[in-house]
Design goal:
single chain, mainly beta, Methylamine Dehydrogenase, Chain H, four-stranded antiparallel sheet, 28 strands
């Protein structure tokens, strides 16, 4: 009798121990919070402020409580640089321009002091992404100037920056570079630096010791042409990561353009084949989703997945959002052509 009772209870026990299914987004509310003649591919959330940086030297901050707006513009000589990278510490905001000359500015939290902290002149220079790990350590990466990715680091909170010499970095392949689509080519997780490339070769570069040594891993993302490969990546933690991209010249194609890793970027598995978005500009994990929920913006609209990228649901047709960041698991902010928007997701 005891054996029968135990067997009868076993399915109930297994059922009670089963992981609860992830709640899914059912709708989205869009609220425009900034409109201007500007292309924004770089945003960062800082407490109750959203900082943005874009073309024509323009940058700014939006108070997310009062909606009060601050606008700034940076010029050097007759140049108003295009900013596609932004990052923050507790003390300051940093914006980095693309193209020659590369200009990296430190902006004080009170917005009163703007200081040039790094400059690089080279006809090949083109920076794609920048992140800070904490109050002292930061990294920026860009396209190859020589035969390696262009990587600079700071150990003093962004006051000074040093280039990692090519002899300490992996060699790039012919036609391998990166895309400054949404400031998401570079991720810092604890002491790990993760960088993704694109173009004729699309790979994942990983350093587990803050840039002293590197490993390079192949990815299955479509590659082989100048405008193919990984355009965006995000890591939920040190192990679970997602890459997305495609062919910029064939934006509707949604095959071989998304992949997931569960071992920190060493191996990647294609998901969502012939499903969901085509060309991807920015992908982000939804907070508190255990690495299962993702949102992507790009050339075919805003798409959402609740099953680690296997299946996708289109939630917005808007093709002019380039970058997105989450404040919490139901509130995000996105930016793109001429505007910044608030996105409230409903479960």
């Amino acid at each position: 009798m005891k054996k029968i009772l135990l067997l009868f209870c076993l399915p109930m026990l297994l059922s009670s121990c089963a992981e609860k299914p992830l709640k899914s987004f059912t709708a989205i509310q869009v609220n425009e919070i900034h409109n201007d003649s500007i292309s924004v591919r770089a945003i960062v959330l800082d407490s109750n402020q959203l900082w943005f940086a874009g073309n024509d030297g323009k940058y700014g901050a939006i108070d997310l409580v009062t909606q009060k707006m601050f606008r700034g513009r940076i010029g050097k000589d007759s140049l108003h640089p295009e900013f596609r990278s932004i990052a923050k510490t507790k003390e300051a905001i940093f914006v980095l321009s693309v193209a020659n000359p590369a200009l990296l500015y430190k902006i004080s939290n009170d917005k009163k002091v703007v200081k040039l902290v790094y400059q690089e002149e080279n006809e090949k220079v083109f920076y794609d992404s920048m992140q800070f790990l904490d109050t002292t350590f930061g990294v920026a990466m860009g396209d190859p100037v020589l035969d390696c990715l262009n990587i600079i680091i700071t150990n003093d909170g962004g006051n000074s920056w040093q280039k990692i010499p090519c002899e300490k970095l992996p060699k790039v392949e012919e036609g391998e570079a990166a895309f400054a689509a949404s400031n998401t080519n570079l991720m810092l997780r604890n002491n790990k630096i993760i960088i993704v490339s694109g173009g004729k070769k699309s790979r994942c570069f990983v350093s587990e010791d803050r840039g002293n040594t590197w490993q390079v891993y192949e990815t299955p993302i479509v590659q082989g042409k100048a405008m193919t490969g990984i355009f965006t990546a995000d890591f939920y933690d040190e192990n679970i990561g997602f890459i997305a991209g495609g062919d910029y010249e064939k934006q509707e194609e949604n095959v071989n353009n998304k992949a997931i890793t569960k071992d920190g970027g060493k191996t990647w598995k294609l998901v969502g084949q012939n499903n969901g978005f085509g060309y991807a500009s920015c992908v982000q994990f939804v907070p508190n989703s255990k690495g299962k929920a993702l949102v992507c913006v790009g050339g075919t609209g805003l798409h959402y997945s609740s099953d680690s990228g296997k299946n996708w649901q289109k939630m917005l047709n808007d093709k002019d959002l380039y970058t997105i960041r989450f404040q919490n698991d139901s509130l995000a902010y996105a930016a793109g052509r001429n505007r910044v928007v608030e996105l409230r997701f409903e479960y």
